[in-house]
């Protein structure tokens, strides 16, 4: 039996209690650095669930999604993930910084997804960041001997893929609405869910945007008709992120000397649309805030777009707007399905290894990406924006306006590597970089430059949240 003492392969040791429990159960294991090449069906995802009765440990493969309703039905209980503060107290008691997949550590009942028992070996989180326990089949069966084996998780590869036709999004959303509301007789989706119209300020700005001879003074006059927007533009230009020399004294000064016509057009639209729906009061614990995700993504996309060869570079302003609005479907999702949004949030907490849009697909049959894209088309926003939203999680998308969707994907993947964002790591295929004519080194350079200005960006996030 391997002990947890450091070897040439390891530089970490298990806490004494875990090592002692494994030895008492005669469970052979190897403590190794967490690999990235082990198939998801052999990697064990652990989630501690609870209700008024107590806790339950759920173990399932990382290529599956834990279905809370199925897990609850299995035990006849209403289960939700243990809240972060309580979980941290439990882990601290055992000197751990991650939840290990070890039933012997808890007095709670344990349920295990049936397919795990068929694997020749399993890899479990050890409770120490970056380290895993490798168990052969015999040891795994011994570890899980008192667990209840059942089917309560859903294979990720079984979830429906995105339809090729964006026109299908409205039908998918209508079907989801009819499943979760009593308004089943209405025919028109926009009547059923009572989507508000495009804000008046955004309408005026979009008209100005399409005017070939529009100038700085026209934009300044339009911005000044909205005191909140005017204050936002001036404070934005005054931000350390732009490091403008001297004091910004007016909207005209902010546009002409610092931000530029194009950026202000898209900032204003993003702000106006962001105020259409309020941020939901419920949210998944540990998730990156909505505006933080939006502004960091927009900044990275702006940098990536400028790094593309000039003759292939897409419209910079639309790229920035695509970044600001990429997760807009999250706000609309909370607006359309308020009672069910709680369930979506809890599933996101129970499945931190799964991209949120896949959770939407499983629970609703439609994703936040589809919902956001549908609304952009309904509001007659530029097609580049609706395309960027809809295909933002498809690294292989090479259709019309693909550069906008590809840049949103790449920005999210790069930020996720820096722990900004949610869900499973998003691989960056060489084909994606080639399509954008970017190198991985250049892309990395862009994201690190943005993160070097993290404090200045946080000020912008605060301004957006309270603007």
UniProtKB/TrEMBL annotation:
<dbReference type="Pfam" id="PF08668">
    <property type="entry name" value="HDOD"/>
</dbReference>
<dbReference type="InterPro" id="IPR013976">
    <property type="entry name" value="HDOD"/>
</dbReference>
<dbReference type="InterPro" id="IPR052340">
    <property type="entry name" value="RNase_Y/CdgJ"/>
</dbReference>
<feature type="domain" description="HDOD">
    <location>
        <begin position="195"/>
        <end position="395"/>
    </location>
</feature>
<dbReference type="Pfam" id="PF04073">
    <property type="entry name" value="tRNA_edit"/>
</dbReference>
<dbReference type="InterPro" id="IPR014627">
    <property type="entry name" value="UCP036888_HDGYP-like"/>
</dbReference>
<dbReference type="InterPro" id="IPR007214">
    <property type="entry name" value="YbaK/aa-tRNA-synth-assoc-dom"/>
</dbReference>
<dbReference type="InterPro" id="IPR036754">
    <property type="entry name" value="YbaK/aa-tRNA-synt-asso_dom_sf"/>
</dbReference>
<protein>
    <recommendedName>
        <fullName>HDOD domain-containing protein</fullName>
    </recommendedName>
</protein>
């Amino acid at each position: 039996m391997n002990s947890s003492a450091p070897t040439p392969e390891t530089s970490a040791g298990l806490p004494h209690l875990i090592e002692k429990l494994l030895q008492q159960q005669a469970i052979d294991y190897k403590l190794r650095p967490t690999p990235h090449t082990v198939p998801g069906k052999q990697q064990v995802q652990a989630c501690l669930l609870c209700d008024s009765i107590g806790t339950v440990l759920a173990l399932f493969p990382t290529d599956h999604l834990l279905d809370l309703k199925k897990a609850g039905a299995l035990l006849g209980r209403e289960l939700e993930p243990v809240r972060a503060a309580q979980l941290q107290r439990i882990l601290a008691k055992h000197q751990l910084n991650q939840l290990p997949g070890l039933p012997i550590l808890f007095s709670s009942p344990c349920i295990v997804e049936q397919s795990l028992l068929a694997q020749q070996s399993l890899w479990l989180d050890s409770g120490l960041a970056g380290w895993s326990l490798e168990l052969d089949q015999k040891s795994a069966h011994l570890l899980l001997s008192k667990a209840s084996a059942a089917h309560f998780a859903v294979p990720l590869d079984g979830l429906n893929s995105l339809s090729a036709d964006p026109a299908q999004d409205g039908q998918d959303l209508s079907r989801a609405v009819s499943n979760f509301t009593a308004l089943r007789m209405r025919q028109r989706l926009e009547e059923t869910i009572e989507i508000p119209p495009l804000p008046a300020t955004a309408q005026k700005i979009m008209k100005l945007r399409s005017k070939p001879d529009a100038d700085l003074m026209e934009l300044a006059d339009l911005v000044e008709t909205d005191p909140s927007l005017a204050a936002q533009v001036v404070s934005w230009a005054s931000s350390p992120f732009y490091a403008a020399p001297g004091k910004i004294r007016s909207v005209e000064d902010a546009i002409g000397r610092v931000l530029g016509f194009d950026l202000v057009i898209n900032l204003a639209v993003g702000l106006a649309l962001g105020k259409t729906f309020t941020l939901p009061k419920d949210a998944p614990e540990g998730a990156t805030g909505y505006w933080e995700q939006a502004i960091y993504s927009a900044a990275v996309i702006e940098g990536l777009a400028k790094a593309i060869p000039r003759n292939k570079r897409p419209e910079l302003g639309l790229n920035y707007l695509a970044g600001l609005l990429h997760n807009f479907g999250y706000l609309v999702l909370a607006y359309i399905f308020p009672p069910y949004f709680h369930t979506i949030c809890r599933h996101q907490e129970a499945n931190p290894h799964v991209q949120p849009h896949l959770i939407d697909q499983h629970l609703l049959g439609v994703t936040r990406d589809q919902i956001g894209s549908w609304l952009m088309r309904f509001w007659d926003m530029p097609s580049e924006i609706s395309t960027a939203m809809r295909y933002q999680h498809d690294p292989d998308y090479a259709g019309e306006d693909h550069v906008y969707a590809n840049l949103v994907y790449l920005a999210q993947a790069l930020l996720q590597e820096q722990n900004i964002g949610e869900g499973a790591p998003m691989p960056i295929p060489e084909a994606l970089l080639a399509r954008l004519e970017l190198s991985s080194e250049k892309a990395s350079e862009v994201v690190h430059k943005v993160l070097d200005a993290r404090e200045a960006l946080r000020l912008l996030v605060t301004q957006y949240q309270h603007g």
